[in-house]
Amino acid sequence: MSKDKPSIPKGTRDFGPATVVKRNYIFSVIKRTFEKFGFQPLETPTMENLSVLTGKYGDEGDQLIFKILNSGDFLAKISGQDLEQGYKPLTRKISEKALRYDLTVPFARYVVMNRNEITFPFKRYQIQPVWRADRPQRGRYREFYQCDADVVGTNSLLCEAEIVLMIDEVLSTLGLDDVTIKFNHRGLLAGIAEAIGAFGREADLCVAIDKLDKVGQEAVNQELRTKGISEESITNLQPILGLSGSVEELLPQLDKLLKDSAEGKRGLQDIRGMLAFLGSFSQTQAKLELDVTLARGLSYYTGCIFEVKVNNAQMGSISGGGRYDNLTGMFGLPGVSGVGFSFGVDRIFDVLEELNLFPQDSQTITQVLIANFDEASMTYALPVLQAFRQAGISSELYPDSAKLKKQMAYADQKNIPYVLLIGSEEMQSGQLNLRNMRTGEQEKLDLPAILAHLKNNL
Amino acid sequence: MSKDKPSIPKGTRDFGPATVVKRNYIFSVIKRTFEKFGFQPLETPTMENLSVLTGKYGDEGDQLIFKILNSGDFLAKISGQDLEQGYKPLTRKISEKALRYDLTVPFARYVVMNRNEITFPFKRYQIQPVWRADRPQRGRYREFYQCDADVVGTNSLLCEAEIVLMIDEVLSTLGLDDVTIKFNHRGLLAGIAEAIGAFGREADLCVAIDKLDKVGQEAVNQELRTKGISEESITNLQPILGLSGSVEELLPQLDKLLKDSAEGKRGLQDIRGMLAFLGSFSQTQAKLELDVTLARGLSYYTGCIFEVKVNNAQMGSISGGGRYDNLTGMFGLPGVSGVGFSFGVDRIFDVLEELNLFPQDSQTITQVLIANFDEASMTYALPVLQAFRQAGISSELYPDSAKLKKQMAYADQKNIPYVLLIGSEEMQSGQLNLRNMRTGEQEKLDLPAILAHLKNNL
Question: Which residue of A has its CA nearest to B132?
């Protein structure tokens, strides 16, 4: 057996108890909201057949898929010739499976495989880890969770409106109340391309505009030139990039600008449809902002697109999504329109830490520790312990008669709010000593009073 | 892009909503119980360094570990010579990481890596999937969840007693009330080896006796002969294999039998210690049975061992565990005693299905579906929908004005207990039509009455 100092693979993380508890708090808020809106959970296998994944994420993405070596003698069917052709063709011969790269492709695969059993519209959410062989960096991991919710099988703009409502509910429940939900529509981007005299070039436009926030207007123009967009088109684009104002102010300007573009008009109609639904619900906390420069990289979006920013924190987008018309087309099932979005849990975690928004009781598992002085106090404590647990109070008895200081440190480290001290005096009187670890106050109470006190204060 | 019919790797499973919801019910009962007893959650990465895993599960186990191909040009550092040495040495050159095979070794690795930050005793639970390249069979998968709870850093027999209490609480909460918790102690097995004149041969004894249930007494004896156990020892063993009766009846017989064995006496003392703790708690539902033929395969157990059987179901052990004295020794940290156990969720799932024990409300996500007749009813429904959600009721509005039959089928398929029908008459009167999908009853009520009705009935 190896006695080397053990380690974990770079880009992966152990989540110790304090972190898991906080992460679970975020997951539970997301999950509760998804379910409140009628989304059902789906779980797909960690391993997918390599043929399901390859070709779905571009060449660069394919390189980042973690492949699993075939079990047993994977060399048995390999010849010297296979080796000479390099590692890429060889990979296909010694590996048939890979770790999932996102939750979208497995979802599309699931829908196609189960199309006859699924009742559409199908509202599913999925909270599972994904793996990417990216170079690890601060905030970028090789294993991380995605939290996706998608509806497929309906064109209704109610779904877009409900995405806004869900984002608002999750973030305001987490205490994030200064949030902007930016949205745009792929049709607007196509219409703008048309309007500036660059018909059909919206893909290049998107890629360049997507970087506007990061690199600035001049660098975007330079990229557009490199892509062969004419100077005239670039000049026409400038006032559009500078458009600002409320949705109500922007829509009439866009009506004028895009009046000759079918795609542009489709985009404006969808946006008005979504806003009409939102108007029927009472006001959301999040600010809604139409941003015609919002592009989002993923090429499969065809309708509304979303991106969410916390205004008072140092962090990029914490959620995003949009409508796609043909996600299942990659597996031979065309014409299933859908719309979905995703929360970035690692980023939300960092924002909540930065703003100190994790509630204290989201950080506690054990609610009462009973200190262990000696065999007599331990024996006395056992039925007390059982009474706590029967009352639904998470509790434990320190298993050894260790020094009190050590037991207190244990309670501190586990963030346990109450310690019960049962010395010989307490055993005689039945008045047990309950210590509030946050305030340092101690109170002598009998068991029923302790149970009542805890019920009221936990 | 591939248009082939997509599939998933053999031995893996998609969990559709109906299954996830039932599985989550089991997980939540287990999790709630672990936390009630003061266990904290830990999560370790899916990928471990191969060096952490190899050599921990025996040669056969090593073969069943899923290895991950190094990313990039894994052939770059490979020579023709490497290839001639066969696939096993080559694996080490093209793979550095692997999928975790169980939760025990990663836990030991975590404890050793974080020994300076952890406050002992460390009570952790871990509910995560593991992967084994086993030949898939009915009930045996290549990806499956383990639910482990362990305490390390204390010898207290309170931990053994609490394992019994937790097993009892989880299974009785799930409605499994005819359960036997079998236990034994490795010291008893060593003592029996000594008593029958086969001192030090308890490992061979365990391996053979472990199969008693499956192959019968004669085949066990045959295996013992093959292992070189003398005829005299085998003859001495027979009455011991046949020992039966309550714990109270067995203990005095074992006192006599093992009076000259230090290991045997240690085992009896531990068992009495555990039973004394259990006696201080009120009676558990599960039957406790001392079974001196219980061996459990895993060689790292050194103290009490457990195994759990549901008596009225066709299923093997659904939970098991025991005490080990040196789990972290494999990573160079000796002397950390611990005790732990694990629930088999797939088996529990099958038992609950067999006995029809999944509660109906554990199978529901959406509680109310609002039917969608036309644009007017849809607009009317939006604030109603919001009122439901604000009251904490999971609800959805069918997104399209589809045929009612289709919408009802949707509610049925999602197991939604109530459908709200808002036709033109209902909109005028404000008396909305609430249909109970289980009974078929319909009732006309205003919104506050509906909210009250749902609050009382969900």
Answer: A71
Are residues A437 and A416 in contact, defined by beta-carbon separation less than 8 angstroms? yes
CB of B71 within 8 A of CB of A64? yes
What's the start-to-end Cα distance of chain B, in Å?
Answer: 47
A-interface mutation test, from B29, B32, B87, most A Cβ less than 10 A away: B87
CA dist B371 and B402 (Å) reads: 9
Adjacency order of strands within the sheet including B418-421:
B395-397, B368-370, B418-421, B432-436, B442-445
pLDDT beyond 70 at A1: no
What average pLDDT does chain B have? 93
Report in angstroms the alpha-carbon separations of B328 from A371, B40, B332, B392, B394.
Answer: 27, 19, 7, 46, 46
Q: How far apart (Å, rounded) are the C-alpha atoms in residues A303 and A182?
A: 14
* Structural fold of domain B17-66+101-354: BirA Bifunctional Protein; domain 2 (3.30.930)
B328 Cα to chain A: minimum distance (Å): 10
Q: How far apart are CA B370 and CA B103, in angstroms?
A: 44
Which of B2, B66, B399 faces A68 most closely, judged by CB atoms? B66
Query: What pLDDT sits at residue B5?
Result: 85
A49·B6 Cβ contact <8 A:
yes
Closest residue on chain A to B40 (Cα): A17
- Cα–Cα dist A49/A67, whole Å: 10
- CATH 3.30.930.10 occupies which residues in chain A? 17-66+101-354
Q: What is the pLDDT of residues B248-258, one digit of tens each?
A: 999 999 999 99
A4 vs B51, B129, B151: nearest CB = B51
Inter-chain touch B114–A48, beta carbons under 8 Å: no
From-to residues of CATH 3.40.50.800 in chain B: 365-457
Sheet holding B40-41, edge to edge: B40-41, B122-131, B143-152, B338-343, B319-324, B301-310, B179-185, B287-290
Q: Which CATH superfamily is domain A365-457 in?
A: Anticodon-binding domain (3.40.50.800)
